Amino acid sequence: MYTKKFILHDYKRCPFCIRVRIMLYLKDIPYEVVEEPLREWTDWMKDWSSKNNERPRVPILREIKSDDSEVVYTESNQINLMLDDRDGNPVYTPTKESPEYQKMIDWFDWCDNTMKPLLDTYKYGENGEFDASKVQTHAQALASELNKLKTELVTGNYLLGPKMTLADIAIIPFIRQIMRTRGGEFNFSQFPNVLGWTLNLTEAAWFQTDAMRDEGARDGF
Ligand SMILES: N[C@@H](CCC(=O)N[C@@H](CS)C(=O)NCC(=O)O)C(=O)O
């Protein structure tokens, strides 16, 4: 059964969605977009979430097959692993048996479970209550985690060496978010190679395409 089309349930500014849009672009996979109004959600999302007893969240990628059956994929990094592998030519995924594969999984985990909570606190405050007097402390906590990126990027252009992988794709939308918070007040001069890695990716011609645009991304997201 062949794939008739992909549909991405998307929110422009969501960094998890940007991960998936990067991959769809790099793998040259056409797709339709359904914009999800966060917290209101489309009827499809409400229906899917109640049938599956899952909280509505973006991104969701639907694969519509030639017989109109559909497969629903959730979790941005899992979606990206699937997209990279589906043509039998995984360009951005290290081989499963290699130490790099486990390192990639560790970066996924670090990004979502360690760095993102610190980024949210830096951006929105503890429990979403912004307090300007605590920004410095929150920035320091975030900076101490970003040291991991700094150390890793000493040996190569990308996190796992000379080639861009899903590890870079997973993390880059979040670093861009830090760079944009409150007009870019985070002090990146302490991380010149992280800045270089970010600009190398975000200023690449392919990153400037419509799919990667996250307009409206001021401080709000
Ligand atoms: N682990 C998920 C996280 C997705 C996620 O948290 N998406 C946010 C938007 S950035 C969302 O849908 N939030 C709505 C909610 O949690 O109610 C992934 O990697 O896809």
Task: Describe the structure in your own words.
The protein has 221 residues and is an alpha+beta fold. It has two domains: 3-91, 3-Layer(aba) Sandwich (Glutaredoxin); 99-210, Glutathione S-transferase Yfyf (Class Pi), Chain A, domain 2. The protein is built from seven helices and four strands. It has a four-stranded mixed beta sheet with strand order 2-1-3-4. Strand 3 (60-65) and strand 4 form a beta hairpin. The N and C termini lie far apart (39 Å). The relative contact order is 0.14. Glutathione (GSH) binds next to helix 3. Glutathione binds next to helix 3.
Share of helical residues? 40-55%
Put simply, the count of helices is 7
What number of domains? Answer: 2
CATH level 1 name of the largest domain: Mainly Alpha
Look up the CATH topology of the largest domain. Glutathione S-transferase Yfyf (Class Pi), Chain A, domain 2
Count of DSSP strands: 4
- Any idea what the radius of gyration is? 18 Å
The largest sheet, given as strand count, sense and whether it forms a barrel, is:
4 strands, mixed
